[in-house]
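Is S-adenosyl-L-homocysteine placement plausible here? Inputs below.
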Amino acid sequence: MLPKIRIVLVETSHPGNIGAVARAMKNMQFYELVLVSPKQFPSGDATARAAGADDVLAQATVCDTLQQAIADCHLVIGSSARQRTISWPQLTPRECARLLQNEPVSHRVALVFGRERSGLTNEELDLCHYWMHIPCNPGYSSLNLAAAVQIMVYELHLTRSNPAEMSQEPNLLATAMELESFYQHLQRTLEDIGFLHPRKAPSIMRRLRRLFGRVRLEKKEVDILRGILTAAQHSKGTNKPC
Ligand code: SAH
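Reply from A.M.:
I modeled the complex. C-alpha coordinates:
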Protein backbone atom coordinates (compact mmCIF):
# COMPACT_ATOMS: atom_id res chain seq x y z
CA MET A 1 0.00 0.00 0.00
CA LEU A 2 1.24 3.45 -0.87
CA PRO A 3 0.73 6.63 1.15
CA LYS A 4 -1.51 9.42 -0.17
CA ILE A 5 0.37 10.77 -3.14
CA ARG A 6 -0.11 14.25 -4.54
CA ILE A 7 1.40 15.52 -7.76
CA VAL A 8 2.25 19.23 -7.53
CA LEU A 9 3.03 21.26 -10.66
CA VAL A 10 4.67 24.64 -10.10
CA GLU A 11 3.79 27.52 -12.47
CA THR A 12 3.17 25.38 -15.53
CA SER A 13 3.14 27.58 -18.66
CA HIS A 14 1.51 25.27 -21.17
CA PRO A 15 -1.99 24.09 -20.23
CA GLY A 16 -1.54 21.15 -22.61
CA ASN A 17 1.15 19.83 -20.27
CA ILE A 18 -1.30 19.94 -17.36
CA GLY A 19 -3.72 17.80 -19.38
CA ALA A 20 -0.96 15.37 -20.33
CA VAL A 21 0.04 15.07 -16.65
CA ALA A 22 -3.59 14.30 -15.71
CA ARG A 23 -3.62 11.56 -18.33
CA ALA A 24 -0.32 10.10 -17.12
CA MET A 25 -1.65 10.10 -13.55
CA LYS A 26 -4.96 8.43 -14.34
CA ASN A 27 -3.22 5.75 -16.42
CA MET A 28 -1.33 4.80 -13.26
CA GLN A 29 -4.29 5.31 -10.90
CA PHE A 30 -3.23 8.56 -9.25
CA TYR A 31 -5.82 11.29 -8.90
CA GLU A 32 -4.61 14.10 -6.64
CA LEU A 33 -3.27 17.02 -8.66
CA VAL A 34 -2.34 20.42 -7.20
CA LEU A 35 -1.42 23.35 -9.45
CA VAL A 36 0.64 26.21 -8.07
CA SER A 37 -0.14 29.43 -10.01
CA PRO A 38 -0.63 27.84 -13.43
CA LYS A 39 -0.43 30.33 -16.31
CA GLN A 40 -3.82 29.24 -17.64
CA PHE A 41 -6.27 26.89 -15.98
CA PRO A 42 -8.93 25.64 -16.67
CA SER A 43 -8.20 25.48 -20.37
CA GLY A 44 -9.49 23.75 -23.50
CA ASP A 45 -5.93 22.65 -24.30
CA ALA A 46 -5.62 20.95 -20.92
CA THR A 47 -8.92 19.13 -21.37
CA ALA A 48 -8.00 18.04 -24.93
CA ARG A 49 -4.60 16.64 -23.83
CA ALA A 50 -6.16 14.95 -20.80
CA ALA A 51 -7.99 12.69 -23.29
CA GLY A 52 -10.55 11.28 -20.87
CA ALA A 53 -8.71 12.14 -17.66
CA ASP A 54 -10.80 15.28 -17.28
CA ASP A 55 -12.03 13.97 -13.90
CA VAL A 56 -8.46 14.46 -12.60
CA LEU A 57 -8.51 18.03 -13.95
CA ALA A 58 -11.95 18.70 -12.46
CA GLN A 59 -10.72 17.65 -9.00
CA ALA A 60 -7.42 19.56 -9.28
CA THR A 61 -6.74 22.21 -6.66
CA VAL A 62 -5.15 25.53 -7.53
CA CYS A 63 -3.09 27.48 -5.00
CA ASP A 64 -0.76 30.48 -4.96
CA THR A 65 2.43 29.11 -3.43
CA LEU A 66 4.32 25.85 -3.11
CA GLN A 67 4.22 26.27 0.69
CA GLN A 68 0.41 26.11 0.54
CA ALA A 69 0.47 23.08 -1.76
CA ILE A 70 2.64 21.04 0.62
CA ALA A 71 1.60 22.44 4.01
CA ASP A 72 -0.01 19.20 5.28
CA CYS A 73 2.54 16.79 3.71
CA HIS A 74 4.88 14.59 5.75
CA LEU A 75 7.29 14.00 2.90
CA VAL A 76 8.11 16.29 -0.02
CA ILE A 77 10.14 15.19 -3.03
CA GLY A 78 11.25 17.72 -5.64
CA SER A 79 11.96 16.57 -9.15
CA SER A 80 14.85 18.22 -10.95
CA ALA A 81 16.27 17.84 -14.45
CA ARG A 82 19.59 19.28 -13.40
CA GLN A 83 22.20 17.80 -11.12
CA ARG A 84 22.70 20.56 -8.56
CA THR A 85 26.03 21.68 -7.19
CA ILE A 86 25.01 21.39 -3.54
CA SER A 87 24.58 17.84 -2.38
CA TRP A 88 21.16 16.84 -1.13
CA PRO A 89 19.66 13.37 -0.71
CA GLN A 90 18.95 12.33 -4.31
CA LEU A 91 16.80 9.49 -5.55
CA THR A 92 16.02 7.87 -8.88
CA PRO A 93 12.30 7.25 -9.52
CA ARG A 94 12.81 3.59 -8.52
CA GLU A 95 14.50 4.50 -5.24
CA CYS A 96 11.77 7.01 -4.64
CA ALA A 97 9.10 4.33 -5.18
CA ARG A 98 10.91 2.05 -2.72
CA LEU A 99 11.02 4.83 -0.15
CA LEU A 100 7.29 5.50 -0.52
CA GLN A 101 6.47 1.80 -0.17
CA ASN A 102 7.77 2.03 3.37
CA GLU A 103 5.95 5.23 4.21
CA PRO A 104 2.86 4.84 6.46
CA VAL A 105 -0.33 4.78 4.35
CA SER A 106 -1.83 7.60 6.40
CA HIS A 107 0.97 9.98 5.35
CA ARG A 108 0.62 12.60 2.65
CA VAL A 109 3.46 12.81 0.15
CA ALA A 110 4.01 15.55 -2.42
CA LEU A 111 5.91 14.94 -5.65
CA VAL A 112 6.81 18.38 -6.95
CA PHE A 113 7.57 19.19 -10.60
CA GLY A 114 8.91 22.50 -11.89
CA ARG A 115 8.38 25.04 -14.65
CA GLU A 116 8.96 23.97 -18.26
CA ARG A 117 11.63 26.61 -18.83
CA SER A 118 13.44 26.91 -15.55
CA GLY A 119 12.42 23.99 -13.33
CA LEU A 120 12.26 24.56 -9.56
CA THR A 121 14.15 27.39 -7.84
CA ASN A 122 16.75 26.62 -5.16
CA GLU A 123 14.34 28.05 -2.57
CA GLU A 124 11.64 25.62 -3.74
CA LEU A 125 14.08 22.70 -3.65
CA ASP A 126 15.00 23.74 -0.10
CA LEU A 127 11.42 22.88 0.89
CA CYS A 128 11.93 19.25 -0.19
CA HIS A 129 13.28 16.35 1.88
CA TYR A 130 14.67 14.62 -1.19
CA TRP A 131 15.34 15.44 -4.82
CA MET A 132 14.38 13.04 -7.56
CA HIS A 133 16.38 12.93 -10.79
CA ILE A 134 15.57 10.70 -13.75
CA PRO A 135 18.90 9.39 -15.04
CA CYS A 136 19.22 10.15 -18.76
CA ASN A 137 21.53 11.70 -21.37
CA PRO A 138 23.73 14.04 -19.27
CA GLY A 139 24.00 16.43 -22.22
CA TYR A 140 20.22 16.54 -22.75
CA SER A 141 18.59 15.82 -19.43
CA SER A 142 15.40 17.85 -19.51
CA LEU A 143 12.34 15.68 -20.16
CA ASN A 144 8.94 17.03 -21.06
CA LEU A 145 7.06 17.73 -17.84
CA ALA A 146 4.37 15.08 -18.45
CA ALA A 147 7.00 12.53 -19.49
CA ALA A 148 8.83 13.10 -16.18
CA VAL A 149 5.59 12.64 -14.24
CA GLN A 150 4.79 9.53 -16.29
CA ILE A 151 8.06 7.83 -15.39
CA MET A 152 7.62 8.60 -11.70
CA VAL A 153 4.01 7.40 -11.43
CA TYR A 154 4.81 4.29 -13.48
CA GLU A 155 7.48 3.27 -10.96
CA LEU A 156 5.02 3.89 -8.14
CA HIS A 157 2.34 1.87 -9.90
CA LEU A 158 4.72 -1.10 -10.23
CA THR A 159 5.16 -1.21 -6.46
CA ARG A 160 1.42 -1.92 -6.10
CA SER A 161 1.88 -5.34 -7.64
CA ASN A 162 5.04 -5.92 -5.60
CA PRO A 163 4.16 -4.72 -2.12
CA ALA A 164 6.95 -4.35 0.45
CA GLU A 165 6.60 -5.48 4.02
CA MET A 166 4.78 -2.61 5.67
CA SER A 167 6.82 -1.07 8.40
CA GLN A 168 5.29 -0.29 11.77
CA GLU A 169 3.43 3.00 11.93
CA PRO A 170 6.13 5.30 13.36
CA ASN A 171 5.55 8.19 15.70
CA LEU A 172 3.84 11.11 14.03
CA LEU A 173 6.17 13.01 11.74
CA ALA A 174 6.10 16.79 11.44
CA THR A 175 4.39 18.25 8.37
CA ALA A 176 6.05 20.68 5.94
CA MET A 177 4.24 23.61 7.57
CA GLU A 178 5.46 22.63 11.05
CA LEU A 179 9.00 22.26 9.73
CA GLU A 180 8.82 25.63 7.99
CA SER A 181 7.81 27.36 11.25
CA PHE A 182 10.67 25.55 13.00
CA TYR A 183 13.22 26.70 10.39
CA GLN A 184 12.01 30.30 10.69
CA HIS A 185 12.24 30.07 14.48
CA LEU A 186 15.72 28.52 14.21
CA GLN A 187 16.97 31.26 11.87
CA ARG A 188 15.57 34.03 14.08
CA THR A 189 17.14 32.52 17.19
CA LEU A 190 20.52 31.99 15.54
CA GLU A 191 20.46 35.67 14.53
CA ASP A 192 19.36 36.73 18.04
CA ILE A 193 22.21 34.89 19.73
CA GLY A 194 24.72 36.33 17.25
CA PHE A 195 25.57 33.05 15.51
CA LEU A 196 24.12 33.82 12.11
CA HIS A 197 25.28 36.73 10.01
CA PRO A 198 22.62 37.76 7.41
CA ARG A 199 25.21 37.37 4.63
CA LYS A 200 25.86 33.76 5.57
CA ALA A 201 22.24 32.92 6.48
CA PRO A 202 21.13 31.34 3.15
CA SER A 203 23.96 28.83 2.93
CA ILE A 204 23.94 27.90 6.64
CA MET A 205 20.16 27.57 6.67
CA ARG A 206 20.31 25.37 3.57
CA ARG A 207 22.77 23.05 5.33
CA LEU A 208 20.61 22.96 8.46
CA ARG A 209 17.51 22.16 6.40
CA ARG A 210 19.39 19.33 4.74
CA LEU A 211 20.48 18.01 8.14
CA PHE A 212 17.00 18.08 9.66
CA GLY A 213 15.40 16.84 6.43
CA ARG A 214 17.62 13.76 6.57
CA VAL A 215 16.45 12.96 10.08
CA ARG A 216 12.70 13.25 9.33
CA LEU A 217 11.72 15.01 12.57
CA GLU A 218 8.71 13.89 14.57
CA LYS A 219 6.16 16.44 15.81
CA LYS A 220 7.28 15.95 19.41
CA GLU A 221 10.91 16.47 18.47
CA VAL A 222 10.03 19.73 16.73
CA ASP A 223 8.24 20.82 19.91
CA ILE A 224 11.34 20.06 21.99
CA LEU A 225 13.65 21.86 19.57
CA ARG A 226 11.38 24.90 19.52
CA GLY A 227 11.32 24.83 23.33
CA ILE A 228 15.12 24.98 23.31
CA LEU A 229 15.05 27.88 20.85
CA THR A 230 12.55 29.78 22.98
CA ALA A 231 14.72 29.23 26.07
CA ALA A 232 17.78 30.54 24.18
CA GLN A 233 15.80 33.62 23.12
CA HIS A 234 14.62 34.12 26.71
CA SER A 235 18.14 34.09 28.02
CA LYS A 236 19.06 36.75 25.46
CA GLY A 237 15.88 38.68 26.24
CA THR A 238 14.88 38.50 22.58
CA ASN A 239 11.94 36.11 22.56
CA LYS A 240 9.08 37.40 20.47
CA PRO A 241 5.96 35.49 19.53
CA CYS A 242 6.61 33.23 16.51
N1 SAH B 1 14.78 23.48 -18.13
C1 SAH B 1 14.37 23.01 -16.84
C2 SAH B 1 13.67 21.68 -16.98
C3 SAH B 1 12.25 21.83 -16.93
S1 SAH B 1 11.41 20.38 -17.37
C4 SAH B 1 15.57 22.82 -15.96
O1 SAH B 1 16.67 22.89 -16.43
O2 SAH B 1 15.42 22.59 -14.77
C5 SAH B 1 10.01 20.54 -16.28
C6 SAH B 1 10.09 19.69 -15.03
O3 SAH B 1 10.06 18.30 -15.39
C7 SAH B 1 11.31 19.86 -14.16
O4 SAH B 1 11.23 20.97 -13.31
C8 SAH B 1 11.32 18.57 -13.39
O5 SAH B 1 10.40 18.65 -12.33
C9 SAH B 1 10.80 17.57 -14.44
N2 SAH B 1 11.93 16.91 -15.12
C10 SAH B 1 12.31 17.03 -16.40
N3 SAH B 1 13.39 16.27 -16.66
C11 SAH B 1 13.70 15.62 -15.52
C12 SAH B 1 14.72 14.69 -15.13
N4 SAH B 1 15.65 14.25 -15.97
N5 SAH B 1 14.70 14.25 -13.85
C13 SAH B 1 13.77 14.68 -12.97
N6 SAH B 1 12.81 15.56 -13.28
C14 SAH B 1 12.76 16.02 -14.53
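Short version: The first strand starts at residue 4 and ends at 10.
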